[in-house]
Design brief:
Layout (H helix, E strand, L loop, with lengths): L4 H31 L1 H5 L3 E5 L5 H12 L4 E7 L1 H11 L3 H7 L9 E6 L3 H8 L5 E5 L2 H43 L1 H9 L4 H44 L11 H30 L4
Antiparallel strand pairs: 1-3, 1-4, 2-3
């Protein structure tokens, strides 16, 4: 490897990129899924009551809904609570103060957590006379889940294709090395060396290519992670979120490097075995 640094660098570089691409996509999907996890897990339905509904009636309606078999819980948020939340989180303190004696324009809100089919429950709650607006994001979550599943399948397809490409790269590099040593291999065969003895150095060579390429792929992904972490944290902070990118833990990193080494080992093994079967001397 050190005797032909340019060819070694090309082989390792191509393998590293082939490994990094599907891993980067997989890591991005994992972060997106983690970021949207609270949204996906949330099945709550928000019932905005008509402004004419009094607080006592809103509480009574909440008690009635709690008695339904298809509802797990109901939380009442009064107009005063909604106004206080806007004042604290929405940055609308001055605008709220400007309302003055105009009163509180916010309606009462019932946050319903369903037990069964949330879409069916949302449709039935729309028919309540006290309800003005039903907010339910199940359709958006289903589309998001569909995109995440598609992205996961795409990552698997890319991993298979690029993994095959890495195998071919290692195989071609080892094939060239075998061609340059064919006279030496022929002498070893005539002296009675076993196929395993001849194959072993090339297997080690392929494994070394894979291990170094796996480490380089992790280095590239770590550099990309660090370059994106600060602007993403700033963007998430503008929305009041503390979300940060999450990279590979030590166990995952070790598995990636060992998997890349195994990939190089297999590529070298296939090529070397094919060559030895063709050149085995007949008795």
């Amino acid at each position: 490897m050190f005797g032909k640094p340019w060819a070694t660098a090309l082989t390792i570089g191509v393998m590293a990129v082939a490994i990094a691409l599907p891993l980067g996509l997989w890591a991005a999907l994992a972060n997106v899924e983690r970021f949207t996890g609270s949204v996906q897990e949330s099945r709550q339905i928000s019932l905005f009551l008509k402004t004419s509904v009094a607080a006592d009636r809103a509480r009574a309606l909440g008690d009635e809904l709690r008695g339904r078999a298809d509802i797990a819980s109901v939380e009442l948020r009064t107009p005063e609570q909604g106004l206080a939340e806007l004042r604290e989180r929405g940055g609308l303190g001055e605008a709220i103060d400007a309302l003055g004696a105009g009163g509180n324009p916010l309606p009462s809100l019932l946050v319903v957590t369903p037990k069964g089919d949330e879409a069916l429950l949302a449709g039935s709650l729309k028919n309540l006379p006290e309800v003005d607006v039903v907010q339910h994001d199940a359709g958006w979550r289903q589309r998001l889940d569909g995109w995440l599943r598609f992205g996961g399948r795409l990552a698997l397809v890319l991993a298979a294709l690029l993994g095959l490409g890495a195998l071919l790269v290692v195989g071609n590099t080892v094939r060239l090395d075998i061609q340059s040593r064919r006279e030496e291999i022929g002498v070893l065969q005539l002296l009675g060396a076993s196929d395993g003895f001849i194959r072993r150095p090339f297997l080690y060579l392929g494994a070394c290519y894979g291990l170094v390429a796996g480490a380089l792929a992790l280095t590239l992904l770590t550099a990309a992670d660090w370059s994106l972490r600060a602007p993403l944290a700033e963007l998430a902070g503008s929305y009041g979120s503390g979300f940060e990118l999450q990279g590979f833990n030590p166990i995952q990193a070790l598995a990636i490097v060992l998997g890349a080494g195994l990939l190089g080992w297999l590529g070298a093994g296939f090529v070397t075995g094919h060559y030895l079967r063709q050149t085995r001397p007949t008795t």
